Amino acid sequence: MRTLMTYLGAIVFLLLLEISSSAADQKATSTQCPKSFAGRCHCGLAYSIYDNYDRKKYTVNCTNTGFNNVSMLLDLPENTEVLIFVGNSVPSLPPNVLDNFKNYDNLEIIDMSNNHIRFIQGKSFHKVYNVKTLILDHNDIDISQENVRPRILSNFENLERLHMTNAFTEKINASEYLLSLEDIFFESDLIYLKVLHLEQNEIWSVGTNKRVFCDLVKLEQIMLGDNRLTDFDFTIDCLPELRFIDLERNMISRLSDDAMKTLDMFMVNRTKLQIKLDDNPFDCDCRSKNFLQWLNKTKVDIMHWKKFDCISGFPESNTGKTFSQVKDMRCPGISNSGNKNDKETVIKENTRSRNTNIPRTDIDVETYKGPHYFNGDRGSYGNHSSATVGILSFLLVFTTSLLMAVAYFQRKKIKDVLMPHWDYVTRKIGYTGIADEEAPKEAHV
Ligand SMILES: *[C@@H]1O[C@H](CO)[C@@H](O)[C@H](O)[C@H]1NC(C)=O
Ligand SMILES: *[C@@H]1O[C@H](CO)[C@@H](O)[C@H](O)[C@H]1NC(C)=O
Ligand SMILES: *[C@@H]1O[C@H](CO)[C@@H](O)[C@H](O)[C@H]1NC(C)=O
Ligand SMILES: *[C@@H]1O[C@H](CO)[C@@H](O)[C@H](O)[C@H]1NC(C)=O
Ligand SMILES: *[C@@H]1O[C@H](CO)[C@@H](O)[C@H](O)[C@H]1NC(C)=O
């Protein structure tokens, strides 16, 4: 009898053990998200960079999960405030990303960066009426003629910040998608939009549809840094609230007379407009005289223009001087015009090496530019010469091989050292680590 009791006791004990351990397993993998999230996401209260760690919000975070569809988002908890779905691979968004029969009154932020998104259907986004920030950075979105989806943003009735940094496919000429973008803005009623990010989109001209931003009647900030613009060439008199334009690191050698006139006109009834033109390849020859004189008297605040560098100029001695130093600007002889290519290489080198010296913005404009998902894509974009890329690649390969060799010979030791930590990282990865990241700041505007 006694042995039987012990026997039964042991069985019960084993059963309990089994149950509790499987419960523990489930806890370790469930991450508090609905089942369809397959344990790959994190759901819960968290601080995030989007509001500068302002307060904890109910966050659903699917980062680098390997998902190749968004069907689990139909089960998104209704109390979600922040939806992060980044680093996955979803070439095409289906007609309903979120469940049309649920209400997402609290959903404020959607980040769908870096998902290889190519197509967004006209009806992809419903129930996003309270979303204030939409981030679509680093995708391959195609909004060109035949695939035009004029209604893709039409349900974002309260959108205030739209991030489309490096968002569009490179297969299509930027002037074409700017036309499509104008359609999208026209159809969408984004009447609360304050901040528009269009950095790194190979935009070389807006001139073909100058009024592209005019439907965004509350627009305050236009971010066009790291494009290929050669002038300021779009209409702004339709934007009464506009107060900041970012044109950093473009291809502007001087502003044209038209551009300066447009800007002065804008200032007639207004007191404040700031423009950032840092790190453009300015040319200090006779053709820039008007531009420099204008800078000295305009009401537009061209931020720290006195420190801009002449990347080229005539006489040659102007090259390398700052705008406040340059006095004498003459017209280059005909013989110089053949050297354009040489000049451009010099321009690139100079622009890059000076990036660090230039004082950063000191005004309260939007500085959150979204996390950079690509290696080596921090700080300056687009201006790397192939030599630098070559050297960097070589160093990268070299260092990697060295590390691998060391790792091979020390593999046992490394394993012992890393294993416990690795376990810890994979199990407990959560929201505590973000403070250590290079967190872009967003100033409140
Ligand atoms: C989302 O999850 C990723 C990886 O799990 C983490 O690195 C990131 O910091 C999280 N983001 C937020 C805002 O919690
Ligand atoms: C979506 O992805 C999940 C996991 O990757 C997969 O199990 C599921 O079948 C996919 N659903 C569709 C409709 O493709
Ligand atoms: C885009 O088109 C314009 C004219 O239509 C052309 O000048 C420009 O070189 C094109 N850009 C690219 C990257 O194809
Ligand atoms: C400036 O304001 C005045 C009076 O409010 C108006 O008549 C004039 O047209 C405005 N000028 C511009 C350029 O907007
Ligand atoms: C700016 O204007 C002042 C006088 O109004 C003049 O003394 C100064 O040299 C000008 N600076 C430049 C860079 O043109």
Radius of gyration, in angstroms, nearest whole number: 27 Å
Identify low-pLDDT runs: 14-30, 334-368, 370-385, 416-445
CATH topology: Leucine-rich repeat, LRR (right-handed beta-alpha superhelix)
Series of secondary-structure elements, N-terminal to C-terminal:
HEEEEEEEEHEEEHEEHEEHHH
N- and C-termini, Cα separation: 78 Å
Question: Based on the structure given, which CATH architecture is correct?
Answer: Alpha-Beta Horseshoe
Number of separate helices = 7
Major beta sheet, strand line-up:
1-2-3-5-7-8-9-10-11-12-14
Largest sheet: 11 strands, mixed
Helix content: 25-40%
Organism: Halocaridina rubra
Protein name: Trophoblast glycoprotein
Signal peptide: 1-24
Keywords: Leucine-rich repeat, Membrane, Repeat, Signal, Transmembrane, Transmembrane helix
Topology summary:
Layout: H1 2-30, E1 42-46, E2 57-63, E3 82-86, E4 92-93, E5 109-111, E6 119-120, E7 133-135, E8 161-163, H2 174-188, E9 195-197, E10 221-223, E11 244-246, H3 257-267, E12 274-276, E13 282-284, H4 289-297, E14 301-302, E15 310-313, H5 340-354, H6 386-409, H7 411-428
Parallel strand pairs: 2-3, 3-5, 4-6, 5-7, 7-8, 8-9, 9-10, 10-11, 11-12, 12-14, 13-15
Antiparallel strand pairs: 1-2
